[in-house]
Structures are given as C-alpha cells and as structure tokens.
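Holo prediction — alpha-L-arabinofuranose.
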Amino acid sequence: MDRRRFLQTSSLAGAAFAFTARPAWSATADSHVEILLDESVGTIAPEIYGQFTEHLGGVIYDGIWVGENSTVPNVGGIRKEIVDRMKQIHVPVVRWPGGCFADSYDWRDGVGPSKERPIRTNFWADDPDAQRLKGNAVQLYETNAFGTDEFMRFCHLSGAEPYLASNLRSLPAMEFSRWVEYCNSPEGSTTLAKHRAANGSPAPYDVKYWGVGNESWGCGGNFEPEEYAEEFRRFTTWVPHYGVPLSFIGSGPNDNNLEWTNSFFEALRRKNYMPRELHGWSVHYYTWNLSMGETTDWVAGKRDALEFDETGWYELFLQGLYMEEIVRAQWGLLGEFDPGRNIKLVVDEYGAWYKPGTQLDPTHMLGQQVTLRDALLTAMTLDIFNRHAEKVGMAACAQLVNCLNALFFSQEDKFITTPVFHVFDMYAAHQGAQSLRVNFSSPQVHYQRKGKATTLAGLLGSASMRGKTVTVTATNSDLKNPKLTEIVLRGSATIASAEASVLTDTDMHAHNTFAQPNAVQLKKLAVEAQGDRLTITLPPASVSRVTIQLA
Ligand code: AHR
C-alpha cells in the first residue's frame, strides 16, 4: 500500500470520531478508546479464527501426522499436542489440502488401506525451497498416508469444522461431486458411503465448506476470470446436498484485484447464474513486499524474518494494514452483484511471507521464524476482521504449523508455540461476540521510509461484547513509547471488574525456539477501573487484551 492510501484510511477513521459526542477525557492519558456499547457492527463469525493446512513441507507430515507407530505422543497417528493446543484456542475451522497442492490432488489417492495408497509427486517438488530435501522425502513424493479420513479425525479431535479445497484445475467436475458423496452421503446409501464405512466412518462427515478451486488466477489453472466462471458453473451446477447446508467458496482475487472479482461475477450474471450455496468469496493477501517500493518482484521484494531494523518493523505493518482497504473495496464491489449480501469475504490465506533461511528444519518448506513483529501483524489483521464483522465470514491463517505465519513449530518430539499462537489465544474471546463500534485516538507513530517521514496509527484494535463481557484488543506498534490509555464505555454501563494480558518484549526480534520455547509469552497487565472507564499502560511493541465485566 502506498502512503497516500494509508493516510486516507486513517483520516476517515478520524472523521468518524469527530462526529461522535466528545467524552470528558482524562487529562493525563495520551491515548483514548471509546467503545459504543449500543452500536453493534455484527456478530464476529468464529470462523474468522480459522487455520490453513497444506501438504507442503512440514505442515502435514511431522506437524500434524506423525504416524500410529511414532514415539511422539499421538492419537491414531495425529500429534496429540497440536490438537490440545488447537482446542485451547478454539480453532473453529481448518482448510485442507491446499493451497496450490489442492489443484494437483486426487482425493481418491488418500482413502483406503494406507499400504495400498499410491505415491505421487507433490505440487511443491520443484519449488526452489525443495532443493535442500534429499532422496524420496515425503515433501517431494506424497505417500498419501494422510488423506480425507485422517483429516476428518484431525478436525474432530481439535473441535474444528473441515473446509475442503477441491481440485478444479486437474480433475473433472464429477470428482468434486463424488468427493462430496464420499464425505456426506448417508450411512449405507451409496457405494462411496460404504467405502467410507470400510475406512472407519459409517456416519457421514457432513462437510459444509467446499472451496471451488484455489488461486484459479495462478497455480489453480492460470484462468482468465471468465474462464474460471465457466469452470465454476460446471463444478457447482449439480452437487448433492444430503441434507447438509453446503457453503461454496469461490476462488477470489489475489490482493485487491477488483478486475478478477468484477469479471467473474459479470460472467455469472450474463448467464443469470448465482448458486444459493455460494456463500464465500476467497481473498488471499500476503505481506511480502518489504522493499519499500524498490521492486514488485516476488523474490527480490522479500526480506528476512529475523534480521530487520526499526524501518522493517514499521514497514511490515504499513503493508499489512492494506488488508483493510482490500476488505472495504472487495466488499463494496461484491454488493453490486449480491445486494442481498449472501456472499461474505473469506480471507483464507494471509500472513507475513519472508525470504527463505530461518526455517527450523530443512523439511519446513516455506518455513520461517515467527517473531513479536508477526504477532502484531496478525493481531492487526484479526482486529480488521473484527471491525468488519459484517463483511468477513471466514479466514484462515497461512499456515498452522512449520510454515509461513505458523502458530506452532515441531521437529519429531519437539513442539513449541510461536508468538502468533498467543495472539490467537488472546483473541479467541472475540469469537461469536458482537463487534462494537470503537474509536481509537492516539499519537501517531512516525518513521523514515526511504528518507520520507511516514505515519502509522498510534493504537489500533477492536472491541466486542458477549453478555456482560466486553473484550478489547489493541496493538501498540510504537517501539519507544508506551501508551497511557483511557478506555471509556459509552452506553449506560458500570465496570464491575477488569483484567488484562499482554504479549511484548524489549527486543522487537523476540521469538521462541526449541531451546527457549517460552521466550515470548503472555503476561498480566495492570488495569485501573472506575465507573464507566479504565486506564491502562500499553507497553511499546505490544498486543494487549482487556477483559471487562459489566455490573
Ligand atoms: O501458502 C502457500 C501458498 O501460497 C499456497 O499454496 C497458495 O495458495 C498461495 O500462493
């Protein structure tokens, strides 16, 4: 995002603030948060807190699947610690099997007796990141040990809904409906239901969420939007329901490509075709170009996950906050084709993407270290989704384990959480709550970007309410200045009690390793509450959550 666009966004937020009645603020606080208890934006879909898993590097093999005979504690081959930690943060939905892998995957390869499953070349085998892998590594030659039934068990164990991404590039439409049949046809009904029973699950899986291709503008077929619309029609014209309320997710734009969205929906409109199951329009946005405008080259634009200076710290946020513009713009355009607002945005890939070199294990393709900086970016992104709760229906962080914006790292029996995990832990309280209108005002942060003074909002965040509990989350990206913040509740309410937790460190590069697994972890933060307001000092470089109980 360029600076001009960012300043526009912040001044719009400022304008909204100017029109609300000015509260009597404390004279000592430098930052203020006004929460409008009576103004709900909408329910925060729990699915916004989803995760993404792909047959890529160490995500499935070692990350999730260790095998039944492993010495790593497991439940039927699935790493026990990962499901325990996923339950802790209430992961609502998991997307699988890709990503780009999805459009090269034949679901039939991954069902039936494990020993009889074929070995296939993985989509990622020719990626430059695969070059350090040796021999017949499973990252190069997919064994299919983890398939549909294993994924369903993984979801069941972690308490998450499955979201399956279908292969639109290299399988016919028939195989999409047959995969639905395998998953959802009633016990004893079809031959595929009998296969499913023989593979351990007589009861149907009742999978609701189905992605119709992935990145169909790129690795999913390099289609033109009109061509994708044609394939989409072919794939979705007949899919059996078996009483399950199916939700299709169309392969939406890269970044903020409005042309892709417009041409796809125009093509559907020309055919007067809008399936009622189309509930999601996927958006992928990675924060990868930290070159500060030097290049738009996918490789040259990336920077290191661990080695960065103050400018690199702020630049990640400047680029990442473009997500808000994408959400607004794509939503605005969608409204022209879907005035009834049946279709929500599904941001099913997001996170920072750095250059290779900091992965914790050679098998972790696209693996990278995850620092406090990434925790702030993730928190800012989730706050955007919360603030736009009426627009964003689902999201998935890319990816769950041993990959880009990972929550976990594993290496055989070693398993650690990252700072991004702690953000999901703090933010889980927003799931299913009412997103509230909230005004943040705080001294801006300034940094030098290629010799030009550049500005970021001082504090960013979101607020939600469930019953008598109000949750406020906020990021202070300022590396030097704490923010003495007053939070005021508007609407007749009195605070009965309040508590807060924070993720921060004096080192902006702070991260967890197998040797120091708890270098970055949540801590308690002092809050002083009285009447309808509270004060709190938000440390520099921090993500905080304040939990307020109303009387
Ligand atoms: O998350 C890694 C890759 O990024 C996914 O496979 C693809 O969809 C995207 O380009």
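READOUT: The first strand starts at residue 31 and ends at 43.
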